[in-house]
Write a structure and sequence with these properties.
Elements (H helix, E strand, L loop, with lengths): L9 H8 L8 H13 L6 H8 L4 H18 L3 E5 L6 H8 L4 E6 L1 H18 L6 E5 L5 H7 L9 E4 L9 H18 L1 E5 L11 H14 L11 H10 L2 E7 L9 H5 L3 H9 L2 E7 L3
Parallel strand pairs: 1-2, 1-4, 2-3, 4-5
Antiparallel strand pairs: 5-7, 6-7
The chain binds S-adenosylmethionine.
S-adenosylmethionine binds next to helix 1.
Length: 287
């Protein structure tokens, strides 16, 4: 199995959404994305803006912040982020010193762009990059996942983190990624932290239909088919693959969101939704 590089431009969309938050380095990253976009790479910037700005920014902000909250809370000092896209997390966590070694892994096209952006950011910071490594690799490829983990101290546990990946993968691919991470955690110990628990819902939000249509056009993926039937079904899916599932809620960080205020969105509705949105902390069962 091989990673679908058509998914990669969705990373631009998320990078744009984060500019409506207080997440460090978001604006710097997206400024550079726009410069690259003007050279004709990636989706139409107008299209991206319409889809993300008003509706998705709180979701992107929340899932970013719940991962930070959990990584810091558990005290992980080594992190592998798979499908890292254009996230600022590696820069943020190595700069604040909460993490010693941060490895970002994504498909080659995105990593190439990310390396350029990270270089510019550090030049502006007038600093040298710390132990932040950008690795080309396919999450479906066990060897690539192990290679990316080559920077870690094998005597200490790791956090594997991912956001915005599983919804693009079918169930066979999700299981493949999960098995690769399971192998890794069997060696290092630690946990996989992900808010990627997208479930079917009867309630349709107008922006979701627009967003899905846009993403389907971009990637050729039928997103609906990739959703879990329910949170319980998602939990069983991971348990059958040998994980113990701890459910946490995005509501834990709801008070730290700034994008609803910036965008004039209904804060209480957003908070209610986050209270029902889980993030999974997956560790090996029987350990
Ligand atoms: C919606 S973006 C999310 C990026 C990032 N996690 C964020 O939240 O900003 C999806 C990312 O998944 C990456 N991706 C898709 N399939 C992948 C695979 N098989 N292996 C590694 N990365 C993959 C894409 O290149 C893209 O960067």
């Amino acid at each position: 199995m091989e990673g679908n590089k058509k998914i990669s431009p969705t990373a631009w969309m998320v990078a744009e959404g984060r500019t409506f938050s207080d997440i460090p380095f978001s604006r710097e990253i997206f400024r550079e994305v726009q410069k690259i976009g003007r050279k004709g790479v990636g989706p139409d910037p107008d299209d991206v803006e319409k889809i993300t700005a008003a509706d998705l920014a709180p979701r992107f902000e929340a899932r970013y912040k719940i991962i930070n909250h959990l990584v810091r809370g558990f005290g992980f000092r080594q992190v592998l982020e798979i499908a890292s896209g254009l996230t600022p997390r590696g820069i943020e966590m190595t700069e604040e010193g909460s993490v010693d070694t941060y490895v970002e892994m994504d498909l080659p096209g995105i990593i190439k762009i990310k390396r350029m952006i990270v270089k510019i950011i550090y030049r502006e910071l007038k600093k040298k990059k710390r132990r932040l490594f950008l690795e080309e690799g396919d999450a479906l490829d066990n060897k690539a996942v192990f290679k990316a983990a080559g920077y870690f101290d094998a005597a200490r546990p790791i956090a594997v983190v991912s956001e915005g990946l599983l919804r693009y993968l079918n169930f066979k691919e999700k299981a493949e990624v999960a098995r690769n991470i399971h192998h890794l955690l069997a060696v290092f110990g630690g946990a996989w932290i992900t808010p990627d628990v997208t479930v079917r819902s009867n309630r349709r939000y107008p922006y979701e239909a627009r967003r899905n249509e846009y993403i389907e056009r971009l990637t050729g993926i039928d997103m609906e088919k990739n959703k879990f039937e329910s949170v319980g079904a998602a939990q069983r899916f991971f348990e059958e693959l040998g994980f113990r599932v701890e459910q946490r809620m995005l509501g834990e960080i709801a008070d730290s969101l700034v994008s609803p205020g910036i965008l004039g969105l209904p804060v209480s509705d957003i908070k209610k939704r986050l209270e029902k949105s889980p993030a999974f902390v997956l560790s090996l069962s029987g350990k």
